[in-house]
Design a protein that fits this description.
single chain, Aminopeptidase, seven-stranded mixed sheet, about 40% helix
Length: about 170
């Protein structure tokens, strides 16, 4: 999965999306320290152990570099930034039952706006899955030759490589 580049000077406004979500009882906000032991297991269940590790790192930053989406007291989505590397967006995900409502868009824009507020002009979206979503939502472009990028040597990737090796006879 390639990385993508986003020009943070051209981010769309998020006010309408968040207002529509709020009318449905969905809130987008920065995670807080007391949320950690609820958020990290949620991230692991939705996105896996590697994403949970990245999420955990976000709680060591000040301010915490993660946003969450909630429907009442229920976690429904998250977005991390500055987790794997400075100026990187991701991981992020939304509970499948809430997809298509604008939750992912709101989380993305909120996190990218935070990167801009911290002084970045461009951001990298690491190891992108839904390329068309990022192209449409924030004008992101694929970075050539960026796959596997920073994730090349992480243990999970090395484990996958081990299982693909041919067996000796």
């Amino acid at each position: 999965m390639p990385d993508m580049l986003v020009n943070l000077l051209n981010l769309p406004k998020n006010d309408d999306t968040e207002a529509i979500l709020a009318r449905e009882g969905i809130v987008i906000r920065r995670a807080m320290a007391p949320d950690k032991f609820r958020v990290v297991p949620f991230v692991q269940s939705l996105s896996g152990i590697s994403a949970a590790g990245e999420c955990d790192v976000c709680f060591s930053h000040s301010p915490i570099s993660e946003f969450v989406a909630t429907d009442g007291a229920t976690l429904i989505g998250y977005s991390c930034y500055n987790a794997t590397a400075p100026d990187f967006f991701g991981p992020t995900a939304v509970d499948p039952a809430y997809r298509g409502k604008g939750v992912g868009k709101a989380l993305l824009i909120r996190a990218l706006q935070a990167l801009y507020d911290e002084g970045y002009v461009y951001a990298v979206i690491g190891g992108v899955g839904p390329i068309p979503f990022y192209e449409k939502t924030v004008g992101a472009t694929v970075i050539p030759d960026s796959d596997p990028g920073i994730y090349k040597d992480f243990i999970g990737n090395l484990e996958q490589q081990e299982t693909k090796k041919p067996t000796e006879i």
